[in-house]
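hey all, quick one before standup. I had two proteins in the batch that finished overnight and I want to keep them in one place so we stop losing track of which output belongs to which input. First protein below, input sequence then structure tokens straight from the run.
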Amino acid sequence: HVQLVESGGDSVQAGGSLTLSCEQSGYTPHKYCMAWFRQAPGKDREGVASIDTDGGATYEDSVKGRFTISRNNAQNTLYLQMNSLKPEDTAMYFCAARLCASPEYNYWGQGTQVTVS
């Protein structure tokens, strides 16, 4: 039974920092590509950052230089370090996993709320 559980969301002031965590269970993390997505009220879900099995990362343009995605396979945990937060970063953040050969993310967490004021 695959399970992804996010944590770390909070309410912060603009310019602040947060670190989101995603604990994974029920599968072998090092075989999966991982990502963070977010969805703000009234908006479509968007990809924020992704990381492959070798640690190679990609970022959505608006978060480049501010957010860092990382993974610790030994601890089965995915992270998103968020610095210089802006009000437009306010959203529900989700982690997701897929076999790297698959185009679609098969597994999703329940989300953690980030609010920046």
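OK second protein, same deal, sequence then tokens:
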Amino acid sequence: QVQLVESGGGLVQSGGSLRLSCAASGGIISINRMGWYRQAPGKQRELVAIIISGGNTDYADSVKGRFTVSRDSAKNTVYLQMNSLKPEDTAVYYCNALLRRLGVGVRDYWGQGTQVTVSS
């Protein structure tokens, strides 16, 4: 069974920084893409940043220049460095992975979410 274990959320003041981590495990053969989405109260879940197997990245316009997504392929781990945080970044952040698992094929998986709260 695939597990995506997130860590690093918390409470930070506006202008501060946080680093999220997400480690994938469980019969993984290869990872096509990993990244982060977020969902604020009353809003739909939205893409924050993704990194694909070739190393290319994509970001939401609202976080470009402030957030950086990276990965450690050997550890099946993706990171999200968040700088210059704003109150509007407050949300539950979810790790997402599109990966190939032994005996299952390619599927989409989600972490349990980690709360990020930015105070003004």
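Flagging for whoever picks this up: The radius of gyration is 14 Å. The mean pLDDT is 96.
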